[in-house]
Specification:
With about 140 residues, this protein is mainly alpha-helical. It has two domains: about 20-85, 434 Repressor (Amino-terminal Domain); about 100-140, no CATH class. The protein contains eight helices and no strands. The protein is elongated.
Length: about 140
């Protein structure tokens, strides 16, 4: 069992708070290079409502969320902050580089290779948070 420790000089800062729906919506709109007026036209959602969503005054209905995700070219998961958006982004970045995983076994092999690099202390991965696995926690008692 390997012990993972932060790299020398790595900051021990607390993890930033999770983004709100409003900040994820604003980020997606900025990424798409759309103004609120543009998004209002393409989604059919009034600009005043978009402002209220982005300022976290209210949350959209499921129907509105679908309209926003379609207009922004983002998954609903990315807007609401579910974990699958991380996996989607990971696969999309690989795909843009011409790397395609053809099966779940390929994905598992890639994940294990990355974990091995992290275990080996590769400095390119110091940005990743590493927590003990449940098996490692149980072994401590």
């Amino acid at each position: 069992m390997s012990q993972r420790t932060p790299a020398v000089g790595a900051p021990e800062a607390a993890k930033p708070a999770a983004k709100t729906f409003g900040s994820r919506l604003r980020d997606a709109r900025d990424k798409a290079q759309l103004s609120q007026s543009d998004l209002s036209r393409s989604s059919g959602i009034p600009k005043t409502m978009l402002s209220r969503y982005e300022n976290d005054h209210i949350l959209p209905s499921v129907t509105t969320l679908r309209k926003l995700s379609t207009a922004l070219g983002e998954s609903v998961s990315a807007l609401v902050g579910n974990g699958p958006s991380i996996l989607y982004t990971f696969a999309a970045v690989l795909g843009h580089r011409g790397i395609v995983m053809g099966s779940e076994e390929d994905a598992e092999t890639l994940a294990l290779a990355i974990a091995d690099l992290v275990d080996a202390g590769d400095d390119r991965f110091i940005f990743l948070d590493v927590v003990p696995s449940p098996a490692e926690v149980e072994g401590q008692f």
